[in-house]
Amino acid sequence: MKIATWNINGVKARIDTVVTWLANATPDVVCLQEIKSLDEGFPGSAFEDLGYTVATHGQKGFNGVAILSKLPIDDVRRRLPGDDGDEQARYIEADVVSGDSVVTVASIYLPNGNPIGTEKFAYKLAWMQRLEAHARDRLSHEMPLVMAGDYNVIPEPADARNPDAWREDALFQPESRSAWRALTALGFTDATRACDPAGQVYTFWDYQAGAWNKNHGIRIDHMLLSPQAADRLISSGIDRDTRGWEKPSDHVPVWIELSA
After folding, report:
1. 52, 109, 151, 202: the active-site residue
2. Domain residue spans of the chain
3. What is the CATH number of domain 2-258?
4. Which of 28, 52, 91, 150 is catalytic?
5. Which residues pair with 219 in a beta bridge?
6. CB 144 within 8 A of CB 189
7. Does 115 sit behind a cis peptide bond, omega within 30 degrees of 0 on the bond before it?
8. Tens of pLDDT along 150-163?
């Protein structure tokens, strides 16, 4: 089973790019973030034509997450528990069925949190606490679980080409990184680092200041695997070439392969 995640930065602006990548990469399951579309406005037919079932949790002009699957999906669950007043569309999960096996897959668009010291940063940290609580509950079921998406967290200095450039950014604050460590300490495996522990691999290059051409990237798109999913991990990769395509997203796809 090949599972991928990609912050596409607007499905309508990036539809041709995503369809081209899907046709070439042929993932079984895809988690999309920042679709920037209401559910009823999502161009699902373009993906259904490629054999995908589509589940979305959208929001007009902002945020929004989706799961595409060539395999049967069941019990789609939208919204991160823990705050009934949170109207931002940032979380969706579903059970993916492959033969006798079921893998729970979540698509996550974690808040950016900038600027530091504002309610946006407080919201980011509160959202991460909710995610930790929900992840703990999901892990208690002892089933394969893949929590994939744009976490808006740079875990370590090695995950940035120029760490000093991010010292005052919410993505690299001690509080953000501490919340990340608390989440992973529940028993998750960072798939990219499990397969490439020392490599300078990035998933995001800003549109500004020639970041792509200078390779001033950061790694903020992650796939966290429960122990039951990590036991099935075969490989992981990052399709960085898509950042150089016409009208690219500022993020690139990250993927894993799991054994049956």
Report:
1. 109
2. 2-258
3. 3.60.10.10
4. 150
5. none
6. no
7. yes
8. 999 999 999 999 99
